[in-house]
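User: Um, any thoughts?
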Amino acid sequence: MNTTSLTPDKTGEGSGSGASASPTAEDTASAGPERFNPLADPTDKPAGGREVIADPTIADVMLTGTLPEMSFGRADAPVTIIEYASLTCPHCRNFHLKTYPQFKKAYIDTGKVRYVLREFPIGKTSGAASIALRCAPPDKYLTLFGKFMEQQATWVSQEVRLDPIFQVAAQVGMTRQQFDACRENQSMIEGLKWVKDRGRKLGVIGTPNFFVAGKLVKKELTMEDIRAMVDPLIAGRATASAGAPN
């Protein structure tokens, strides 16, 4: 599991997700620290010094900011699973390549689970890619998320390299003009900051972290984990519904 860096300029990621070539002149010229680390930790205090909500309620977990929630599946599904993910996270990649297809088929497509994906970028490269991800049309969001995961080895590096990030975004129809304008969208960037900061307040410390029916799980989920947590909840709600008066 990747853990949040405690200082603003450390990535905390990338060692397991592939190396990339040196930055191009174009990338280096435009990759200033203020522009490409907008989602960095706002403080260098230890994690224990941050405000954390003790025993968050379902309402606490489901609170949203200015950005639309990226939600998939039935809105009224009996169970909601929220994932906090970083695009440069190798464990997130493993979940989405190996477990997510089975999870989607068995639980999301069947209406049993509502799946919510929330950005928790760790490091400058992940932040730059997350900004591009949020600029994709909503119907292309999950597709682009998957492409960033599948192609981590082509764009992840210790330094922010815009060309490889754009090359992934272009695969869902994003133009370079749209990509560049996106990085100047301060309201959207502030919205992403809110999502990450809210995650910290809820106790998220790294990626992937999940909330399953409001309970925080700080590890990569397997299908066995999902079945063990979700199936009893669904069965319990079905029993309660059957026993309710008409």
